Amino acid sequence: MSFLVSFCIIAFLMTIISILSSSSTKKTQESKVNGPPSYPLIGSILSFNKNRHRLLQWYTELLRLSPSQTITIPLLGNRRTIVTANPENVKYILKTNFFNFPKGKPFTDLLGDLLGQGIFNVDGHSWSSQRKLASHEFSTRSLRSFAFEVLREEVETRIVPVLSAAADDAGSTTVDLQDVLKRFAFDVVCKVSLGWDPDCLDLTRPVNPLAEAFDTAAEISARRATEPLYAVWKVKRVLNVGSERRLREAIETVHELVSDIVRAKKKSLEIGMGQEAKQDLLSRFLAAGHDSDIVRDMVISFIMAGRDTTSAAMTWLFWLLSENDDVERKLLEEVEPLMSVRLGFEELKEMSYMKACLCEAMRLYPPVSWDSKHAANDDVLPDGTHVKKGDKVTYFPYGMGRMENLWGKDCEEFKPNRWFDSEQEITEPVLKPVSPFKFPVFQAGPRVCVGKEMAFMQMKYIVGSVVSRFEIIPVSKHKPVFVPLLTAHMVGGLKVKIKRREVKSHP
């Protein structure tokens, strides 16, 4: 039924496109420096549909040809899309004229079913009030300490034993490191956000239903954005068929399970549980007096933001380290002395080469490959690109990491040293400041990620704990395939063998 509906819609629309294209005696192809070929009425839908399964590469190719690193893509039935890899444009969109570039209804339509009125899917007063509350909570020492203890416990009692068990099998066990890191991240984000432990790293148990529903909902919601015609998914949603039916079922599961946790937490707070039960974000948001449904949407947004972003960045870093022995050796030189003591905030701050490795991995493989806003009014970007009210304006971290004018001729190579002021061998290399508008993996401006520092803390601790204990050996010699959904991931996971590293013992 779903296939038939989709086929009929697409066949009807493509028939109209063919008629319009053939009736035009002259195509009005835009210059290649401005974007893909464009035709009367139908815009660039033919090129978009042809390249929809390789949009990252296609956008990057077009942006490299553009002198301004900005392209425009008009599509039949959709708003015009402007894609930019120009840092001046990114600064203008995310900071200088922030209020003219909100998320906008077209964006919130894509994720609204899942995220509701959560902070990552709203604008205006609703966003401002949630942002203020979240910024306050993330800046408190108590939340930072709570999150660190959750992280320490999860590493020492779960991820290290899981990898140790694989190492003890003398190389006979293959581990999907991407899956392990996703499970780990889901455990941590649920403990910090909800005060609830899904125990996903117990590999003997079935996949947690909340984690499974999140995966399904996130994937289908993201694929809505790659439809050449929004009418396809909207019709399927109205008819409740195919992927939209699966999405509705997954969202119902997410909302129901999180609502149950919210109700239980609210009840425990009302009867006066101990202070230790009030450290998670859910308890803090409820204590601020917010309605249960709003709180549900807020914590769903934080789970969505934290569950796969850090795990994706670490997955790619582990693969990159396996391909670059010299970088791994240098990282071990920094990590091993610090692992001889019980790691804390100060030790993590000292890991400057670790941070450079993480930033370089995210430059090449950003967890969020692109992000879109919608123009509230007509505007002109700093490079002279005219923006019309309602246009979708997308900044593109994946493509920005591959622009020679931003990162040099070696922009496609993994070189952590590019993040230091000097590449010479010095005792204490200093990380150089890099504009967040050149490297917008955590966004920038008023919407900059409130959990940025917590994310670095988590990634440094995990990578340091793992790389100092184990050698990660990928099974396949082929380069993994990078696929962007709401959060980018490796197709098929990262299958590895685990081998104990012969270093000094750790506490």
Automatic annotation (TrEMBL):
The keyword Transcription does not apply. Heme binds at residue 449. Keywords: Heme, Iron, Membrane, Metal-binding, Monooxygenase, Oxidoreductase, Signal, Transmembrane, Transmembrane helix. GO terms for molecular function: heme binding; iron ion binding; monooxygenase activity; oxidoreductase activity, acting on paired donors, with incorporation or reduction of molecular oxygen. It is found in: Membrane. Its cofactor is heme. It comes from the Eukaryota. InterPro entries: Cyt_P450, Cyt_P450_E_grp-I, Cyt_P450_sf. SUPFAM superfamilies: Cytochrome P450 (SSF48264). Residues 1-22 form the signal peptide. One of its GO terms (cellular component) is membrane. It is a single-pass membrane protein. Belongs to the cytochrome P450 family. This is Cytochrome P450 94B3. It comes from Brassica carinata. The lineage of its organism: Eukaryota, Viridiplantae, Streptophyta, Embryophyta, Tracheophyta.
